């Protein structure tokens, strides 16, 4: 008789993991639970986006100079509201807010954690019903508990993250996270509104065949990236080439596929974006933590580990290479050879 799989809910699993830490107070457990609740609310709106007046633009622009979609603003408001009313979080940085948001209530000021997040990444895909995601990164504050959170709380290197993850609003809705004990995935059962354990331990294959990059920017890429793309396209069955180009325009969707199947995602510096496009604190660091925890690698393409880059500003950009170790070595060898 096949062993009936005991499906743990997200909260049951987090609590079991917390019990592995004798001095855990439960704050991180509750914080991850708050993120789960906010993501279910966002998921409901994402799934109804075609039916309610939540599509389209707000008519405003964010710090990135990008037009803010109604669903971007909705997601940002939901996470800000739920985290801001929690006792665990004292402050928040998001892609949609120019400055850090320091939660001012006395209870919030006692919060031990700060959160950096992209409430809805890939929003250019919202109106065309392609997968989008939420990315989050959690640190212990370094400023004094009881005071308002300050910028230095948010400028810690990615190695200091206590947890990171994403929610993928795709053909199914998944929450994937790590607290430094491997990567675990949960799938939402919308009929009862619960995330159930579906991927107990996600391990990124050492190599794969997917390469994810916006080749529309080819002419502006560094020579090393151009040469790597040509390498991916060589017809050599002995090395499983040509690889397959897969680029959704949503970092979460591309990374999730590459983490499960093996692959590489590259958003390099270009002539028009010399620092790259992606943001260090709320896109690259959390994804890099997940990459390393699943056996992958994440660098700036020139041998610098993403998690060790000390942020100098909350919206700092960085070139971003992440994926299967063997593919990352190939790509970095080309970057080194062609500078
Ligand atoms: P481009 C979405 O805006 C995002 O931050 C990532 O999710 C995605 O991989 C990338 O930017 C897409 O950027 O310039 O290729 O449209």
Fill in the keyword field for this structure:
339 residues; alpha+beta; Fructose-1,6-Bisphosphatase, Chain A, domain 1; D-Maltodextrin-Binding Protein, domain 2; 2 domains; eight-stranded mixed β-sheet
Could you describe the 3D structure shown?
The chain is α+β, with helices and mostly antiparallel strands. The chain folds into two domains: 10-199, Fructose-1,6-Bisphosphatase, subunit A, domain 1 (Fructose-1,6-Bisphosphatase, Chain A, domain 1, 2-Layer Sandwich); 210-337, D-Maltodextrin-Binding Protein, domain 2 (3-Layer(aba) Sandwich). Helix content is 31%, strand content 23%. The protein is built from nine helices and 15 strands. The chain has helices at 10-18, 27-48, 70-84, 106-109, 151-154, 223-233, 251-261, 280-293, 325-338; strands at residues 57-61, 67-69, 89-94, 101-102, 113-121, 132-140, 163-169, 173-178, 183-189, 194-199, 210-212, 244-245, 263-267, 297-299, 320-323. The strands form three sheets. It has an eight-stranded mixed beta sheet, sandwiched between helices. It has a five-stranded mixed beta sheet with strand order 12-11-13-15-14, sandwiched between helices. The protein has a two-stranded antiparallel ribbon with strand order 1-2. Helix 1 runs antiparallel to helix 2 (27-48) and helix 6 crosses helix 9 (325-338). It starts with 9 loop residues before the first helix and ends with a helix. The mean pLDDT is 92. 6-O-phosphono-alpha-D-fructofuranose binds at residues 121-122, 214, 249-251, 254, 277-278.
């Amino acid at each position: 008789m096949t062993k009936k799989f005991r499906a743990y809910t997200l909260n049951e699993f987090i609590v079991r993991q917390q019990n592995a830490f004798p001095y855990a107070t439960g704050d991180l457990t509750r914080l991850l639970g708050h993120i789960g609740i906010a993501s279910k609310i966002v998921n409901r709106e994402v799934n109804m986006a075609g039916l309610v007046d939540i599509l389209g633009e707000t008519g405003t622009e964010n710090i990135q100079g990008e037009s803010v979609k109604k669903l971007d603003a909705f997601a940002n408001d939901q996470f800000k509201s739920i985290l801001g009313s929690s006792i665990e979080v004292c402050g928040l940085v998001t892609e949609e807010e120019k400055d850090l948001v320091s939660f001012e209530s006395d209870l919030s000021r006692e919060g031990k954690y700060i959160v950096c997040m992209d409430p809805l990444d890939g929003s250019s895909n919202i109106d065309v019903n392609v997968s989008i995601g939420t990315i989050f990164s959690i640190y212990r504050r370094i400023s004094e508990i009881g005071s308002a959170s300050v910028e230095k709380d948010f400028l810690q290197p990615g190695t200091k993250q206590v947890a990171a993850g994403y929610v993928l609003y795709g053909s199914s809705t998944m929450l994937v996270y790590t607290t430094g004990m491997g990567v675990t995935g949960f799938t939402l059962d919308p009929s009862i509104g619960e995330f159930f354990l579906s991927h107990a331990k996600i391990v990124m294959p050492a190599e794969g065949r997917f390469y994810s990059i916006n080749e529309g920017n080819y002419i502006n890429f560094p020579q090393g990236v151009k040469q790597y793309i040509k390498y991916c396209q060589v017809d050599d069955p002995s090395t499983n080439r040509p690889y397959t180009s897969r680029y959704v325009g949503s970092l979460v969707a591309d990374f999730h596929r590459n983490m499960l199947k093996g692959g590489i995602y590259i958003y390099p510096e270009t002539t028009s974006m010399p620092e790259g496009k992606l943001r260090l604190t709320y896109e690259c660091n959390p994804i890099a933590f997940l990459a390393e925890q699943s056996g992958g690698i994440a660098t700036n393409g020139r041998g610098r580990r993403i998690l060790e880059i000390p942020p100098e500003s909350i919206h700092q950009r960085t070139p971003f290479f992440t994926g299967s170790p063997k593919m990352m070595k190939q790509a970095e060898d080309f970057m080194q050879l062609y500078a």
